[in-house]
Design goal:
716 residues; alpha+beta; six-stranded mixed β-sheet; 21 strands; globular
């Protein structure tokens, strides 16, 4: 974008007085006439919009091109006098970006915004002018791809720019389509920059833009971006791969002959299909070389079969597996189970009589269009069956790192008063929009964004209430808890996966049904080891924030002491224990959970609090060994207490319900409960209980032992 404009007057940081007074309003009619009648072609490309119009009409024969012409006139006049570092007039950049999108089949609104995508950032054109001339949709998209002011954000400008673009993408995916095309053209012309700047831009492209292109399904942009980044960051491997491809070009390629055989088979079976040989791009060849070592002739490309209907895809598959030797391990059905980035195809591999193995992709022509262009191929995703005209408009979101457009904001048309449902928004984008709100620090956002985008597979799990959750592959029950309940998941004590009790650390698989069990104690909080099992940024940020605000694992001093989630690291309140230390906070140790009339000892720990242990607890010896200050502790006369019990049992249906019922019959409150995964049909339950009278503890333990299947109950 503006990184290659060399006109210093185009940058607001170079002219702070413009930022103080506001940019000068331009007469759009006057600059339009100037563009038509202006000076020679040294600053303008004659008929420059023609190739864009031709590519656009190939996908949209009835498109109205007048708005594109008006957008070009404004862009050309606004950028006049600016040059790229390559020496070309700057207008060549928005034209190139628009041509990339037009060739992918983008609709007119996207192309209009693409022509104007740098005007607000690099010239004196304002968002209000864009809105007045081209409407709210174009204005919103242009604002979405406009960088935040570096003078305002400093080193945080790049992370905050991406945050702004992603938030805008949540309301209109066409924002990111333009950004990807913009980065592709900049990467194509990156050779004029210093090597260190090339490397920095390439790394951001690798870590952020390429994963976004993959998730939005824009494979045509993703593959070229991968090759360009590969050449910059790994020049030796790139040259080696280029030499492999060049050497293959002079050898006999077996794929055309295999493709001819496939055509003959399909023709004889009566299936109308188009069969192509698709060469692999550089990065794909490099990956195959790393995987297989020595490459064979059929490894440099794949066979693509295009048909008309979904049923024909499976017909082609049947013929291929009948007439060729299939490689069963290579078969994947992405039609019945599409990828989370809209991708659908059948993948298989067959062996020719000569022994060559050819990968074959089978898809319909519509699937092919979506596979190549992703969300770009969907046109305007907000036009419904009842919509008229250009469809629903998005409205403008002003300000750096602006939030999602809210209903009723100025500039949002009446038809947008209700939140728009974007059918192209998959689970990963919704998750990203949620967790970025909890990451106000730019460095945290930037690091977590890269980590999130590195997750290249997604699973879908079913909630007990019938809803679904989209999670990255490898996610655990902890991630599902925070995805479903937000911060209320701090009180999660367990989960049922496919009807079986399991620990929160258990990983989930695609198609699992998960029921999350929450504690009723509002002061509950997560354990520190949850961070080891959390995979989603939302869960990690929420857990980390809670742990930072509760360094000792306890809530605010004025709050009710929180219930432990498990025996490990559990801490309750002081209960009936009183320490001979004025104003000291007293806590009962979670390792031994003393109750009256146990003999106890107290030790001063971090923060001046006193932790109370049973006198025979192994921690007492450790405290004395490290020189912890001992404090005398005694019990109050009141009888209520809190205790943690471990119940060992054989697994059986309804065991948890029967144990809970036995506890309730004794008049005891369950503060929290943890059930560990079964090991050799044995289950371990950990209960933290509030007893109205400590003398009732033996009777409670006997009642729990009497539950069928329970073979031992002990103090923690």
């Amino acid at each position: 974008m503006s990184a290659e404009a060399t006109n210093p007057e185009a940058h607001p940081e170079a002219r702070p007085e413009l930022r103080r007074r506001g940019r000068t309003r331009l007469d759009l009619r006057r600059i339009g006439r100037a563009a038509l009648l202006g000076p020679a072609s040294r600053d303008r490309l004659p008929d420059a919009i023609g190739h864009v119009a031709e590519a656009h009409r190939a996908h949209h024969p009835d498109a109205d091109l007048s708005v594109l012409r008006r957008a070009y006139l404004l862009a050309e006049t606004s950028h006049r006098g600016q040059m790229r570092k390559s020496g070309e007039p700057y207008i060549t950049h928005p034209l190139a970006v628009t041509l990339i999108l037009a060739e992918l089949g983008a609709e007119t609104t996207t192309l209009t915004a693409s022509l104007l995508h740098d005007t607000v950032e690099d010239t004196d054109v304002t968002l209000d002018q864009v809105r007045e001339e081209f409407g709210d949709e174009v204005c919103f998209i242009v604002d979405g791809v406009t960088k935040v002011e570096k003078i305002d954000y400093g080193a945080a400008a790049e992370p905050e720019t991406f945050r702004k673009m992603l938030v805008a993408t949540g309301n209109d995916v066409r924002v990111m389509s333009i950004k990807l095309a913009d980065r592709l053209h900049n990467m194509r012309t990156l050779g004029v920059m210093r090597p260190e700047k090339q490397a920095r831009i390439a790394m951001v492209t690798r870590d952020v833009l390429i994963p976004l292109a993959e998730r939005l399904g824009v494979q045509a942009l993703k593959t070229e971006l991968e090759d360009l980044v590969f050449a910059i960051l790994h020049p030796e491997e790139y040259e080696h791969t280029r030499a492999l491809i060049a050497a293959h070009a002079g050898e006999r390629d077996p794929l055309p002959a295999i493709a001819d055989s496939v055509r003959a088979v399909l023709r004889d079976s009566g299936i109308v299909a188009e069969v192509q040989v698709r060469p692999r791009h550089f990065v794909s060849v490099h990956r195959i070389a790393l995987k297989r070592g020595e490459l064979r002739g059929s490894d440099f490309g794949r066979i693509l079969v295009l048909v008309g209907e979904n049923a024909d895809c499976y017909g082609v598959l049947g013929e291929l597996h009948t007439c060729f030797t299939p490689v069963v391990s290579e078969f994947k059905d992405f039609i019945a189970a599409p990828k989370f980035n809209l991708y659908q195809s059948l993948h298989t591999a067959v062996a020719s009589p000569e022994g060559y193995v050819a990968e074959v992709i089978v898809r319909t022509r519509q699937m092919h269009r979506v596979a190549e262009a992703g969300v770009v191929a969907l046109g305007n995703p907000y036009v419904t069956a009842t919509a008229t005209g250009a469809g629903t408009a998005a409205g403008a979101a002003g300000g750096a790192a602006a939030g999602a457009v809210a209903a009723g904001e100025p500039g949002v048309p009446a038809e947008c008063d209700e939140e728009r449902v974007d059918p192209t928004r998959p689970g990963w984008l919704s998750r990203l929009l949620d967790w970025q709100q909890s990451a106000p620090d730019p460095d945290t956002f930037w690091n977590v964004l890269r980590s999130e985008l590195a997750q290249d597979r997604e699973i879908t799990v079913f909630r007990a209430d019938g809803g679904t959750l989209g999670l990255p592959a490898g996610a655990s029950c902890i991630d599902a808890a925070y995805a479903q309940h937000g911060e209320a998941a701090h009180g999660c004590i367990g989960a049922r996966v496919n009807g079986r009790l399991t620990s929160l650390s258990s990983p989930l698989s695609d198609g699992d049904t998960v029921q999350l069990l929450l504690a009723h104690d509002a002061s509950s909080g997560p354990a520190a080891d949850w961070l080891e099992h959390a995979r989603t940024p939302a869960a990690r940020i929420a857990i980390g924030s809670w742990l930072e605000s509760h360094p000792d694992g306890a809530g605010p001093a004025a709050a009710v002491p929180r219930a432990p989630l498990s025996v490990i690291g559990a801490r309750g309140g002081g209960g009936n224990a009183v320490a001979d230390l004025p104003d000291a906070t007293v806590r009962l140790a979670g390792c031994c959970t003393p109750v009256p009339p146990d003999a106890v000892a107290g030790f001063v720990v971090r923060g001046g609090a006193v932790t109370v242990h049973r006198i025979h607890c192994t921690t007492v010896a450790q405290m004395r060994a490290v020189g912890r200050t001992s404090v005398a502790v005694h019990w109050r006369a009141t009888a209520d207490c809190r205790v943690t019990l471990l119940a060992e049992s054989f697994g059986r249906p309804h065991l948890l319900a029967d144990l809970t019922e036995a506890i309730a019959r004794e008049g005891v409150e369950v503060v929290s409960a943890t059930v560990e995964p079964p090991v050799e049909q044995r289950v371990r339950h950990t209960y933290t209980l509030q007893l109205p009278d400590a003398t009732g503890l033996p009777a409670l333990m006997r009642a729990m032992r009497d539950v069928p299947g329970v073979y031992d109950v002990s103090r923690a």
